[in-house]
From TrEMBL:
Domain of life, source organism: Bacteria
Pfam families: YjbQ (PF01894)
Name of the protein described by the UniProt record: Uncharacterized protein
Species for this entry: Phytohabitans rumicis
Family assignment from sequence similarity: Belongs to the UPF0047 family.
InterPro entries (alphabetical): UPF0047_YjbQ-like, YjbQ-like_sf
């Protein structure tokens, strides 16, 4: 998945929904195998995605305070991100549809502009 060269909250609900379509009941597990990205279940399109990036900038500034110092300035904060936005989420699937709330979306959160391409792994546990 291409995320670009700047922090982004990318809605991946459509891809996740396509993955579980026709699967019946069970659990969808979403995982990003990266040390600098996470998965969030949030509302998008009403400003919450930008609010999340603003909150992360305030909590984890892109300055020189970080001991992890490779890549662009402040890149160490990207390595702390998964402690706040975990790299996984598990969601119920009922009748082949993800049981999200009305305004919930599954989002890839990527603050690392040094790595513009990410993998997202979906797995399904029937049950």
């Amino acid at each position: 998945m291409r995320t670009g060269g700047r922090p982004i909250v990318k809605d991946i609900t459509a891809e996740a929904s396509a993955f579980v379509s026709g699967e019946g009941d069970g659990l969808l597990h979403v995982f990003v195998p990266h040390a600098t990205a996470g998965v969030a279940i949030i509302e998008t399109g009403a400003g919450s995605d930008d609010d999340l990036l603003t909150a992360l900038d305030e909590l984890l500034p892109t300055d020189d305070r970080w001991r992890h110092r490779h890549g662009t300035k402040g890149h160490g904060r990207d390595h702390v991100l998964p402690a706040f936005v975990p790299p996984y989420a598990s969601l119920p699937v009922i009748g082949g549809r993800i049981a999200l709330g009305t305004w919930q979306s599954i989002c890839l959160v990527d603050t690392n502009g040094d790595n513009p391409t990410r993998q997202v792994r979906f797995s399904f546990l029937a049950g």
